[in-house]
């Protein structure tokens, strides 16, 4: 599947060009492998330096991470909503969770993280578009601050920053507003004395704008793996 490595290189070129144009450092690339087989992830690990992968569904993640357990330096990011009854698999196997949005999940992840493992790196998901359907904390300083300090008080979690998905169908201007606001919210947390450095934002369609607004991680699925089919 040479097309996978070609797609990966094309995405890296887009990221590089966007960072160059904005005069910003290049963000890390998380390859979002949801719905695609473990074999695709393995191939990218064999043919490239890509090691950060994102998954949305905990059951699928459980199977894939077992199948790929022999790749020592793979780094798994959970980027989908976590139901409380599925938190254990994230706590035991993931390196990052991008979708912290309520106290209950924070507590469970910290309790379930095996103490011999390094702290789980976590991001607070911000519902930046203020959408009813989406998960995440409302984009208000107070709500984010409260959850951030809860995370920071727990032993087995390490708060790294914020994550968002832009409102579907946003214009370029609307994307800039949402991603720009995320950047301000991260700076706000830093001003509150929190040691945070990560902004996870930007997907296949909007990565250039996210990079221009200061993304430090972009999450790219279809531009690397192809269109997803949810039929299975
Ligand atoms: C699926 C998904 C992505 C990747 O989306 P693409 O448009 O395929 O790049 C990124 N972030 C989240 C939260 C996702 O669910």
From TrEMBL:
Keywords per UniProt: Pyridoxal phosphate
Record-annotated Alanine racemase N-terminal domain positions: 7-228
Gene3D superfamilies: Alanine racemase (3.20.20.10)
UniProt record similarity statement: Belongs to the pyridoxal phosphate-binding protein YggS/PROSC family.
Names of required cofactors: pyridoxal 5'-phosphate
MF (Gene Ontology): pyridoxal phosphate binding
N6-(pyridoxal phosphate)lysine PTM positions: 34
Physiological role: Pyridoxal 5'-phosphate (PLP)-binding protein, which is involved in PLP homeostasis.
Signal peptide from the UniProt entry: none
Keyword Manganese appears in the UniProt entry: no
Protein name (record): Pyridoxal phosphate homeostasis protein
Pfam families: Ala_racemase_N
